[in-house]
Amino acid sequence: MSTEQVIKRVTTKTLALLKRKGIKISVLTAYDFITAKLFDEAGIDVILVGDSLSNVFQGNETTLPVTMDEMIYHTRAVSKGINRAMLVVDMPFMSYQLSIDEGFRNAGRIMKETSAGAVKLEGGLRVAETIKKITDAGIPVMGHIGLTPQSIYQFGSYRERGKDENEAEEILQDAKAVEEAGAYAIVLEKIPAVLAKKITEHLKIPTIGIGAGVHCDGQVLVSPDMLGLNMDFHPRFVRRYANMAEIITNAVKKYTEDVKSSNFPSEEESY
Ligand code: KIV
């Protein structure tokens, strides 16, 4: 029996159970109602309204410009398409970096103004206090360490993190700090598979990998990348499950041809 047949609504408890049972967790990003509905009906475990919204929806180069209001707007739309999956929302850049209280207030705002089940924020030790404050108030937090795109200007590139021993140790300590602060799950982005395996074995909470190898408890991808909508971006960790760019381009070409040749609409399509 597959997990989608057994589980009515995915919660933090479900994800903990899946880890204990060794059942992998599937996560995808979504930014609108129709896509979220399709993903939910297809049996995805977690839908993330990622701040990748800034790149793939708004066309920005980084995740930095997207705002709280925009994240909330998209989350409300996505939530209407979901019956089963757990809905997680990224806290955008500068919504939790200013102070612990500011992060706490913004996490609360997301929970009050959307139907999200959790928030996600980037960072390890340096945001541990913020995670603790938010989780102490009953708001589930998903952590995110390794390559954290909101710090891209500090890193200087999107290269893999944790390749040398010192950086790998820092990332392991970050993972432990996030767990100790009360997070219920953690994203490991673009780190060596052996490091992700070590973290996954060390932590009780599920690890969700993106470019972090097969040993994580689950995997997440940015949906326009895995659907083949975003043809300009092909890092090695993205597997393309469809070529939506080609399907959409062909459909639009055919529609344009049909309109121009008066082949659309037909008599049956008219009143
Ligand atoms: O914003 C996002 O889409 C993310 C995923 C890459 C995990 O944080």
Protein model, in words:
With 271 residues, the protein is of the alpha/beta class. It has two domains: 3-240, Phosphoenolpyruvate-binding domains (TIM Barrel, Alpha-Beta Barrel), CATH 3.20.20.60; 244-271. It contains twelve helices and eight strands. It is globular. The mean pLDDT is 96. Bound molecules: 3-methyl-2-oxobutanoic acid. 3-methyl-2-oxobutanoic acid is lined by residues 29, 48, 50-52, 90, 144, 187, 210, 220, 222.
Concise description?
The protein contains 12 helices and 8 strands.
Flag low-confidence runs: none
How much helix is in the residues?
Answer: 40-55%
Q: If helices are DSSP runs of H or I spanning 4 or more residues, what is the number of helices?
A: 12
Helix-strand sequence: HHEHEHHEHEHEHHEHEEHH
Give a list of the ligands.
3-methyl-2-oxobutanoic acid
The name CATH uses for the topology of the largest domain is: TIM Barrel
Tell me the total number of β-strands.
8
Strand-residue fraction? 5-15%
Radius of gyration, taken over Cα atoms and rounded to an integer in Å: 20 Å
Sequence-ordered SSE layout with sheet pairings:
Blueprint (H helix, E strand, L loop, with lengths): L2 H4 L5 H10 L3 E5 L3 H9 L4 E4 L3 H5 L10 H12 L6 E5 L9 H14 L4 E3 L7 H9 L4 E6 L5 H4 L9 H16 L4 E5 L3 H10 L4 E4 L7 E4 L1 H4 L17 H17 L11
Parallel strand pairs: 1-2, 1-8, 2-3, 3-4, 4-5, 5-6, 6-7, 7-8
